[in-house]
Amino acid sequence: MSGTKPKRFYKSAGVVETDGSHGIALDGKPVRTPAGKPLAVPGAALADALAGEWAAQGEEIDRETMPLTRLACTALDLVPERRTEIVGEVAAYAETDLVCYRTDEPPALARRQTAAWQPLVAWAAERYGARLAVTTSITPLAQAPGALEALRAAVAANDDFALTGLSLTTRSFGSLVIALAMRERRLGAAEAAQASLVDEHYQLERWGEDAELAARCTCVARDAADAERLFRLLA
Q1: How far apart, in whole angstroms, are the C-alpha atoms of residue 174 and residue 126?
Q2: How far, in Å, CA of 33 to CA of 67, rounded?
Q3: What is the Cα–Cα distance from 52 to 24, expressed in whole angstroms?
Q4: Which of 69, 128, 147, 208 lies at a C-alpha separation of 20 to 30 Å from 43?
Q5: What b-and-e string marks burial along 216-231, b requiring 16 or more CB atoms within 10 Å of the CB?
Q6: Could you read off the pLDDT of 63-73 as tens digits, one per residue?
Q7: Over the stretch 211-229, which tens digit does the pLDDT of each residue have?
């Protein structure tokens, strides 16, 4: 039956170290990814966290409660074969980055956008030498090639696991700059989610509860928290 959760089939979950890698084992048997690769990660801290997700399962295995396992499987199964493509997709967000497109009306929202985003634009210029232009027009900006190349290099510098987290947050935020700021610990997860949701929070405050907007805010906050935890465990 579609959507049925698999029954828990193991008693214990732990970490096994082989040739410098840290794999996950259930009742002593190695776990494999959906593509059949060993679920092995760089570092004991991340491996312990993955084993904890497996150990915390009840009578059924709920993969929605295993975000680190999902991210690790993505890093192992999808990123190596598509790395160049994924780097390009993530870096392309800089061409139309959320923080570069402002409004001038209403003034209250314009002030919020400037307060949240302009420090990040300045940070990107200082940290990466990526000087991004900002506009209040709906017409797409042509960002300087040097700025785009600098941000692409920043994306490419991440290993497959960190790139997986960066891809998740860039897509969720609609902003490479905010995602990089969280990756570099310039922002915490809550701050990054808040920065990416300036418009949504303004609309909710002005017009009241909206189920679709509220659901988006919840999803963005969850993605940010999951990626931040991954980044910290990789450190």
Answers
A1: 21
A2: 14
A3: 10
A4: 128
A5: ebeebbebbbbbbbbb
A6: 999 999 999 99
A7: 999 999 999 999 999 999 9
